C-alpha cells in the first residue's frame, strides 16, 4: 500500500479547487488508515523541460564531454549529475549511528525548465574552465521553451 498520494488541483481566485475524481480517489486511498498525523504539501507546478532542451543536453552538452573524456554518454550523465545535482545519503545503523555518507547524482527529470537551463549552464562553465571544452550555447529560443 503506497504511503503517498499525489493529485493535481488548481487555484482559482485564491481558492483550492480539487476535482471530484481526485477527491474520490483520495478518500478511497486513506479509508483504511487509522487515526494518524499526515503531511499535506501544496506546490506550484512549473513547466517541465521541452524535448528540444533534452535533445540539446544529450546531443550537445553530454556528447561534447563524452567525446573529450572517452566515457560513454551514460557514464558522463551520471558524473554530471553527481557533480551538479549532488544528493547526499547517510547510512545509519539501528542506533542511529552514522556508518557511511554517500553522494550520488540527483535526478534531472525533476528539474523545471529554469533549473534545467541553469544545470546546463553550470556544466558548460565547468567544461570551458576545467576541460578546455567549449560547448555551444543553446538556441536562444530554447531557453524560453526549455
The share of residues in helices is: 40-55%
Please report the distance between the alpha carbons of the first and last residues.
Answer: 36 Å
Strand composition percent: 5-15%
Radius of gyration: 21 Å
Q: How does the overall form come out from the CA principal axes?
A: flat
Main sheet makeup = 2 strands, antiparallel
Primary descriptors:
146 residues; flat; two-stranded antiparallel ribbon; single chain; alpha+beta; 14% strand
What is the element layout, followed by pairings?
Elements: E1 10-12, E2 15-17, H1 20-30, H2 51-69, H3 73-84, E3 86-92, E4 98-105, H4 113-131, H5 140-145
Antiparallel strand pairs: 1-2, 3-4
Helix pairs in contact: 2-3, 2-4
Description of the structure:
By secondary structure, the chain is an alpha+beta fold. The protein has a domain at 51-145. Helix content is 46%, strand content 14%. The strands form 2 sheets. It has a two-stranded antiparallel sheet. Strands 3-4 form a two-stranded antiparallel sheet. α2 (51-69) crosses α3 and α2 (51-69) runs parallel beside α4. The longest helix is centred in the middle third of the chain and has 19 residues, at 51-69. The mean pLDDT is 87.
Amino acid at each position: 500500500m503506497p504511503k503517498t498520494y499525489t493529485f493535481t488541483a488548481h487555484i482559482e481566485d485564491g481558492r483550492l479547487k480539487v476535482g471530484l475524481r481526485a477527491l474520490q480517489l483520495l478518500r478511497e486511498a486513506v479509508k483504511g488508515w487509522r487515526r494518524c498525523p499526515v503531511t499535506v504539501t501544496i506546490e506550484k507546478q512549473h513547466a517541465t523541460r521541452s524535448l528540444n532542451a533534452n535533445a540539446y543536453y544529450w546531443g550537445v552538452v553530454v556528447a561534447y564531454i563524452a567525446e573529450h573524456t572517452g566515457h560513454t554518454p551514460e557514464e558522463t550523465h551520471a558524473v554530471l549529475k553527481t557533480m551538479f545535482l549532488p544528493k547526499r545519503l547517510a547510512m545509519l545503523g539501528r542506533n542511529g549511528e552514522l556508518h557511511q555518507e554517500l553522494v550520488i547524482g540527483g535526478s534531472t527529470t525533476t528539474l523545471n525548465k529554469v533549473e534545467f537551463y541553469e544545470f546546463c549552464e553550470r556544466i558548460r562553465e565547468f567544461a570551458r574552465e576545467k576541460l578546455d571544452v567549449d560547448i555551444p550555447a543553446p538556441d536562444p529560443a530554447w531557453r524560453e521553451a526549455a
